[in-house]
Design goal:
single chain, 442 residues, alpha/beta, Aspartate Aminotransferase, domain 2, 15 helices, globular, binds pyridoxal-5'-phosphate
């Protein structure tokens, strides 16, 4: 019997050690079945935090709440990696999935498309900043970035791409080449990755704009045939530690791309769909050629999209023979129905505006309590802790108090707060109080 009331706006209730006895049994089963590297990684992290090695095991979730197999109730300040922006199991998303499941669960992709997939494509094409747009659907963030990288290669005929230190775009081979977040992810596969990828320094908010853009400008110095064909950028680096570039950086990249016939790809997989207080964060400052979205889009089902200006997307040409880019489950009817519901909820509940005001409140409160250096854009909030040990210890203490948070930054020196956009004020207040207690700040 779930303890998660009707709305998912509960404060935490942790009544067993975390994990409890049932959780430990599940984790034993996990260790017997999972690829060993994952289990070992958790063990290392737990050792670094000086805490027991086992994770909690999720059993159900609703709104901002998660219940584990031991019946403990948590408040989710991760949104499940940024996915549950409208909350876990939003009733309208569940209704849309249920209704679609009673009609059509699987279609025939781009051979015989489904009505719901076409409706989603129309809705997404209208989301971008362009007069006319086209869309490629995918299942993961990686898929969306792959589609964007392929589009850029076709449009420019140039294989080079610029990414940034600290940037994270997924781990399929295309985006992996630009994984500035950690060389460790790239190293074992280096020989298989795009040799024309370049990872450049990421500026801070305080970096002078010319200094921030200098290394990018440098890449366009040689013979034009050698110039990169695209720049791939997160408007704010999420996993990299909520790192905000100086104002004007995206617009500056846009200008350099335009001058040199390269495409600007905005990776809004985390920052988009309301998270940072706007439907799309990049378009506040500039107009990218391609925009990748994912995570929140499917409300928990795997749906992503690469949106592009129509003339750029036309570089895929007219279809002759085989489809150049397709996937069995791309445009999956259930995912499409869920995504349409999510887009409806985001609009009806005005969640971008709520993220903007509540995120501001959260950041102001954290700062005024002296809980550390805070970086925030809407409901993407990062708290500098100083080092990994401190972050991981806070993650553990908060878990024991019933708040789920994740470390961020390649060196895990940041605590990332990414709650559902409709998290209640009471839950936010509870988290701030718990954080204060965990840090020993009254
Ligand atoms: C900005 C950004 N891009 C891409 C991805 C990759 O998405 P996925 O894990 O769905 O492939 C992530 C995932 O964290 C992300 O934060």
């Amino acid at each position: 019997m779930s303890r998660l009331g009707p709305r998912g706006d509960l404060l935490p209730s942790v009544t067993t050690p975390v994990p409890g006895a049932r959780g430990r049994d599940w984790v034993d089963a996990l260790a017997r079945s999972e690829c060993p590297a994952f289990t070992a990684r958790r063990k290392r992290r737990a050792e670094a935090s000086g805490a027991p090695t086992d994770p909690i095991v999720w059993a159900s979730a609703l709104g901002a709440n998660v219940e584990d197999v031991d019946g403990n109730v948590f408040v989710d300040f991760t949104s499940g990696f940024g996915v549950a922006a409208v909350g876990h199991r939003h009733p309208l998303v569940v209704a849309a999935i249920t209704s679609q499941a009673n009609k059509l669960i699987h279609g025939l992709g781009d051979v015989y498309p489904s009505d719901v997939k076409i409706t989603l494509l129309e809705r997404l094409a209208a989301l971008g900043p362009w007069r006319e747009a086209r869309v490629i659907l995918g299942l993961s963030g990686s898929d969306a970035v792959e589609a964007a990288l392929k589009t850029a290669a076709l449009a420019t005929g140039r294989p080079g791409v610029i990414g940034f230190e600290g940037g994270y775009h997924g781990l399929a081979h295309g985006p992996l080449a630009l994984c500035g977040y950690s060389e460790g992810f790239r190293r074992p596969f280096a020989a298989q990755l795009n040799p024309h990828a370049r990872i450049l320094p990421w500026p801070t908010e305080a970096t002078a704009l010319e200094d921030a853009l200098g290394p990018v400008r440098e890449q366009f110095r040689g013979h034009p045939s050698e110039w990169p064909g695209a720049v791939l950028v997160e408007p704010v680096q999420g996993r990299g530690g909520v790192r905000i570039p100086p104002r004007g950086f995206l617009a500056g990249l846009r200008e350099l791309c335009t001058q040199h016939g390269a495409l600007l790809i905005a990776d809004e997989i985390l920052t988009g769909l309301g998270r940072c207080g706007a439907w799309l964060l990049s378009t506040r400052e500039t107009e990218p050629d391609l925009i990748c979205i994912g995570k929140a889009l499917g409300g928990g089902l795997p749906v992503s999209a690469c949106l592009g200006e129509a003339s750029v997307m036309a570089s895929w040409g007219a279809p002759e023979g085989e489809a150049l880019h397709t996937g069995t489950f791309f445009g999956h009817p259930l995912g499409a129905a869920a995504a349409l519901a999510v887009l409806g909820v985001l609009a009806d509940e005005d969640l971008a505006a709520i993220a903007s005001s509540r995120g501001e409140q959260l950041a102001t409160e954290l700062r005024s309590r002296g809980l550390g250096r805070v970086r925030a854009v809407g409901m993407l909030v990062g708290l500098e802790t100083g080092d990994a040990k401190r972050t991981l210890s806070l993650v553990r203490k908060l878990l024991e108090m019933g708040y789920l948070v994740l470390p961020a930054g390649a060196d895990a020196s940041v605590l990332q707060l990414v709650p559902p956009l409709n998290v209640s004020e009471q839950q936010v207040d509870g988290m701030i109080a718990a954080l204060g207690a965990a840090m020993g700040v009254p």
